[in-house]
Amino acid sequence: MFTQSVVICDCLRAGDACSGDDSCSPRLRTLRQCVAGDGSVKLGPGARNQCENAMTALLSTPLRGCQCKRGMKREKNCLSIYWSLHQSVLHGLSLVESFPYEAEERGSDYVRLASIASEVTAVNRCLDATKACNIDETCQKLRTEYVSACIQPSARSGPCNRPKCSKALRKFFDRVPPDYTHELLFCPCTDTACAERRRQTVVPACSYEDKDKPNCLAQLRVCKADYVCRSRWTQFQYDCQPGEPSAGGCQQENYGACLLAYTGLIGSTITPNYLDNSTLDVGPWCSCAASGNQREQCGDFLAFFHDNVCLSDSPPFQLGISARAPSGSWLSGKFCRSAETFLFCVVSAAQKLPSCRKLISVCADKRRGVKENRWETADLSGFVVETSHQT
């Protein structure tokens, strides 16, 4: 019998193993029929009982705990297996709530990136981020690919081919390390020229904007009908779930995971971006007009972007050395908090050790799109300084 004692994290492998098991295979096939429709036609009058029995049996197999990797080969197939079982409500059946993607652990060559940072100007961090990307072969190649795909006119769809553009964007954000993608997307700006460059990162004219703003709930329904988009949205809700300000703003206490989940939405039906170049507000290109009696639900969807303290207060990615330090405490004001755990370090060719500054606090005025940072020279005594490398 194919049981839970067999540990298989990958849903593709778990699905293949189930398909080769005489007792598991028919139950998975039954549950997929339940997912595909109401089950009554294909499964007969006893459809509900058959669906419940199949679900209960499969919860005792490795399918229950399986997940997928973002950007993996056959990602959609993997997620189809995941969603066959993991849904909160399926035609009145209570199923398991979970999140579809494995936690990502991406290494970062902090010292090399810090060296790059020491050689470029600090006047425009967004321009610096582009220069850093152009030095890295993978980042430069995939960025060139998506920009080309997003600006190339299409005979059928006019100014650009949005599906092709979206696919290239997903490839870029799935395969390029966050060292580069986060610095491109979240680079701090003090003027509108810099902010506009940041807003243009995803080529919004093709990937984001349209003549009219569709209804947000209509866009969300389209998203949920697609396994990949649905999974990215579910992961974003989980990783960016707001928490109490005193606890740091994120329920999962992981800003990095929240930012990764945010970038995972880019290239989907609900692609988010900066709403303009004068604020730090982000969200999808949609509105709550024509929401009828679902206006509150629509507002909640937009609020997960506009008023999400976990997302808006995620510290920008730092080039440099990572250090373990005590958690920071919040200062007065919703968007002002201690940042004593974050260091910015640069390494020059003549230095054996990095030169670091400690970020004391970050205060952001969302309406003006301005951040005020307080720094002091970092004392690294008592800190565990780490460098990690890509594998």
| Low-pLDDT windows of residues | 88-92, 107-121, 316-355, 357-373, 380-391
**CATH H-level homologous superfamily name of the largest domain:** GDNF binding domain
Main β-sheet description = 4 strands, antiparallel
* Sheet/helix structural class: alpha+beta
- Give the count of structural domains: 2
How confident is the prediction overall: mean pLDDT? 74
Oligomer: single chain
Helix fraction bin: 40-55%
What Rg, in angstroms, do the CA atoms define? 23 Å
Task: Walk me through what this model shows.
The protein contains 17 helices and 10 strands. It has 391 residues and is of the alpha+beta class. It has 2 domains: 77 residues, no CATH class; 211 residues, Orthogonal Bundle (Annexin V, domain 1). The strands form 4 sheets. Strands 6, 7, 8 and 9 form a 4-stranded antiparallel beta sheet that branches. A two-stranded antiparallel ribbon has the order 1-2. Helix 2 packs across helix 4 and helix 8 runs antiparallel to helix 9. The longest helix is centred in the middle third of the chain and has 15 residues. Keywords: Cell membrane, Glycoprotein, GPI-anchor, Lipoprotein, Membrane, Receptor, Signal. Belongs to the GDNFR family.
Present the secondary structure layout.
Layout: H1 11-19, H2 24-36, H3 40-43, H4 47-58, H5 75-85, E1 89-90, E2 93-94, H6 110-119, H7 125-135, H8 137-151, H9 162-175, H10 178-185, H11 192-199, H12 204-207, H13 216-224, H14 227-239, H15 255-264, E3 272-274, E4 282-284, H16 295-306, H17 309-312, E5 322-324, E6 336-338, E7 343-346, E8 355-365, E9 370-377, E10 384-386
Antiparallel strand pairs: 1-2, 3-4, 5-10, 6-8, 7-8, 8-9
